[in-house]
């Protein structure tokens, strides 16, 4: 007898496929139009953008994907009171599945903009719909429905990079691991390709991309959004870490035309944390990816747009509106900018470090990396909370976690609750006054040499995975000379601009450009403080936009006769 995994969202039928009551259905009628279908009709197809939301009044709507032969495989059926859609209803991305109305079906068809108005105005309906949309995306991810297939070695850097990108962006996918020599030969023969072309991403229509960059993959999957050259946004948030997402939520919820530009995925460095346990309101902890995912959805709910896999390359700030130039040649114009680009990971200066970067050397400890370490020894480098969280998380599956720190202990840099767990764990060994000096291996990392800084003793550990969490440097190169930068590269804020006192602690030396979170000079490098700064900065954005409107009105008014006399 088949059993249902209790962790599978499809087991939570009442939440993933809820029914609106009659009063809610009547309310939904105010936001859409009713339609009848007398023959099987396709409501939307995979690859379409900005599809409608359908509430079923009578009849049946089937949701399906296509198998390798192009035949439909139905995995959800909606009837009276139920509704279609998942998270792509909230953005301009390409939808992942198909939906068709069977003969004799009557629906309420609600356009995307009307759906957003309904979710904002009808909180009882919004709670039911939002929970269902989130669970449906989780169901697609866990079951590999509506996604893509990656063919490549599970430990190869290029394969891992694609998996990380799709995982952090919540895109369903499955992996065919070619690590085994026999499996690789069999797969390559079946695909008619060579090992040099791996990894390969295979799409539902059986087309494929060989060794794509994340930007190429994002474009092919429809994760990116096109910008209207004629549109000037109220505010552009650069960076989708905790501070950037908080800024987006508050800006969009307060009616500002908001776009977030992110080079990789929502969450920033916090998004790679296995579990954050000291964030207010989550007594049992929450993973960084889950926290970022909720904030991302929340921002979209209020109307913020998110441009993924698009790094900002430069900023033209000599005149208003400001002009951001993106990777790929696109430009975005805006009246205000919130700089929330955080920081990039620092690297070790050890022999052959770069050779194993991305395959053996990691900067995040998520369930994906955890699977690579099953039953093996691993090394975590660093003495901060990120390193402590990673060590505790990896100790669940690894045979031993070696925590390597240059200092004499952890008390000055790590929260006490993590220090206590590390001290009481039989699977974590702390190595103080230590540093990695050499990485060893042929095709894959096989061992790491660590040296005691006080004695000079060198010990070689047989490990295939090292997690480097030694801090980060600010991502501010793209700002050029537009704003003041301190000696370490962080954005200076709260200082006078052109002789005028700063109106906000987040104001930079350029009017209308603000900085929050880890990228800001003097900021507290914590998720909670980043969220606070991102939410608080929007008041200053409003004040800047008000000053622009005031100046525009003043410039448009004719001079008074008295002034002319």
Give a verbal description of the structure.
The structure is a single chain. This protein has 565 residues and is an alpha/beta fold. The protein folds into 4 domains: 9-143, Jelly Rolls (Sandwich), CATH 2.60.120; 148-221, Glutaredoxin (3-Layer(aba) Sandwich), CATH 3.40.30; 232-344 and 473-553, FAD/NAD(P)-binding domain; 354-470, FAD/NAD(P)-binding domain (3-Layer(bba) Sandwich), CATH 3.50.50.60. 28% of the residues lie in helices and 24% in strands. The chain has 14 helices and 28 strands. The strands form 7 sheets. Strands 12, 13, 14, 15, 16, 17 and 28 form a 7-stranded mixed sheet that branches. It has a 5-stranded parallel sheet with strand order 19-26-20-21-22. A 4-stranded antiparallel sheet has the order 2-6-4-5, with no helix packed on it. Strand 20 (377-381), helix 11 (385-394) and strand 21 form a beta-alpha-beta unit. Helix 3 (112-121) packs across helix 4, helix 8 crosses helix 13 and helix 11 (385-394) runs parallel beside helix 12. The longest helix is centred in the C-terminal third of the chain and has 30 residues, at 527-556. Residues 560-565 have low confidence and may be disordered.
Task: Name some characteristics of this structure.
single chain; 565 residues; alpha/beta; Jelly Rolls; Glutaredoxin; FAD/NAD(P)-binding domain; 4 domains; 7-stranded mixed beta sheet; 5-stranded parallel beta sheet; 28 strands; 24% strand; globular; disordered C terminus; FAD/NAD-binding_dom
